[in-house]
# Entry
Amino acid sequence: MGPGTGIRRPAFLLVSLLVVFPTPWHAAAQDTGESEGDPRSGWVDGSFFLESADGAFRLTFGGRVQPRYQFDQPLEGESTSSFFLRRVRLDVQGHLFDDRLTFRVMPELARTATLRDGWVNYAFGPMLQVRTGQLVVPFHWHRFMSGNRQQFAERSVPSETFGFPNGYDVGVALHGRNPENTLSYGVGLFDGAGRNVRESNSAGNMASGRITWAPVGELPREEPDQRHSEELGVSLGMGLQAASRNEARAWDLGRSTAGNSRADWIAATGDVSVRRRGASAFVEGYLRRVRPDDPDVGTYSGVAHTLGAGYFVVPRRYEIVGRRSELWLDRQAAGTRVRQVGLGVNAYHQGHLWKTHVQFFRTSTPLGDADAFLVQLHLAF
# Structure
């Protein structure tokens, strides 16, 4: 039995029981062997769909393609000038038997084919849903917000370092959102090995959760204010994550002996976002305490923060953006400090379905600066 099997099996059994024994307050769709009318198909909300005549079965097909040019000036060595595909993804979603049982399969096809989303979801109601499979770990702002709807072509350094690596893991989670779209939550238990990992160095598991509340307006659907909202919107979010005997990865800082890079950790994050009339801003902070599974290595803490803002100089079309991040993997060690500044211009040709990023990043470490300039086309369907 590989790591995480003990989580996955009960999780999938739970969803199976929900299908076999539907809740008494919801009548399941009946299979009569025939349906009236013809299947329906078309284009809705930027995606193609195919649906049975009675609406019991539905498939939605989408995807995204991101060709990019990038110029890099690294800390050491020669500069590089490259054309490549940053992301090529297919997205298949739908529901089976009734609209409470949904699924999503999204492979990444750029470079090496891998699976990103691969889950099944059952909704008792808007505020109580259970999801199992490989899914986004609920924790911080830049995973709460879809990558399709962010201002920068890459997430911030703190987001990728203090958030769970690659953002995905296998497990089971409860989540929901109120009908007024002012409150959402997600909490789950995960393997801790990350996505597409059959065996790992993790001996324990990881728990993670997030809650987001909009005291003014509704929860944001995008990081910029591309919709040019007339009313002020404010959201507050916080997340908590804890793991036991988990693979420490780079967080070990090379201090533990080979083969002993496990750790217990607890991490917290908080964020605030505001938006109105084409202007948007957010701030997020992180705190993580790591206890390596090595008696010769002491406990240490890391901190990080990110500030980001954007403004549409031409409403809904052209946006200027800026972002500044700073982190310390160990706040007592100056050699673990990293800073990053990003600046850019975004052109929205068709909202978030078709847009162009022109952006510059400078990443500073104790060893020096590394620069990157990119132009990326984003096309989603």
The radius of gyration is 22 Å. The chain has three helices and 18 strands. The CA atoms of residues 30 and 97 lie 8 Å apart. The helical segments are 5-20, 141-144, 157-162.
